[in-house]
Hints:
Blueprint: H1 7-36, H2 43-47, H3 57-64, H4 66-99, H5 104-112, H6 119-130, E1 132-137, E2 142-147, H7 149-156, H8 171-199, H9 203-211, H10 216-244, H11 248-254, H12 270-277, H13 282-310
Antiparallel strand pairs: 1-2
Amino acid sequence: MVESKHSWKAWIYLSPAILLLLVFTVWPIINTVRMSLLEGYSSMGAAGGISYSFGIGNFKQVLEYKDFLKCLGNTMLLCVLTVPISTLLALLIAVCLNAIKPLQRLLQTIFFLPYVTNSIAIGMVFAAMFNMVGSAFGGENEIIITAGIINNVIEFFGGTRVNWINVGSSYIANIVVMVIYIVWNALPFKILILLGGLQSINKQYYDAAKVDGTRRIRVFGRITVPLLSPMLAYVVITGFIGGFKEYSSIVGIFGDDMGPTGDPGRLNTVVGFIYDALGNHQGRASAAALILFGIIFVVTLINLYVSKKKTHY
Length: 313
């Protein structure tokens, strides 16, 4: 513990970090709240000397704007679909990895690689995998459709090609592609957390169950899941937080249009809506950011309340 007469030294050492936090974290939050309460605020207008009155008009505009409700619906749908699926898959993979001793470290590294890879680059790879490209050849403009690897696999097993992300593709097909990508991209972090939790469980519980002749499925449900519940609660909460901030994955697959060609904005999210409004409607963007913060805060509180009753420490 630092003696009080030397505490000024500690403040000197901490001052660079505190200064950076004030400039890049605290002030942006305060400024976001300020801009959200200035009705119709625009930085260009403010630079030109226009004054703005305080009010909640920006929040009303955001909530009444039909595109925002569509963006919010897309965001919530992706969260509801991807968080449970990715958590369940991560749990099963972590259990399997924990049971495999040979090459365990190598497999952990392989599963963790997507987490350290640029999400835009991964999205471009997924776009190529699900893509269908038409090319014209010959004098009669013969069109040859080149399918991606996913459609090639479907045709190999006797199925028909699916228009996943191109012009004329359905909303369901687009959502399926996004769910597959987001789940795959979210698995590494969750596997790492759950695997660490599995390796910290006392082996005596499993030894006692083995002596009693307990079936593996019962051991999984009565020992593994309850003792792993704190980590499960953590990955679920962080999963919902990350899901509500989803943006780069859609840009990686569909580009700035946030949807297939001919239907831009079909898969836009709340974060995408905020980025779109940053150009000339900073007040509206700030209001949308605070609304998103409120939604994430409420969902996190609900998760904490549920996990408090279901988590075994």
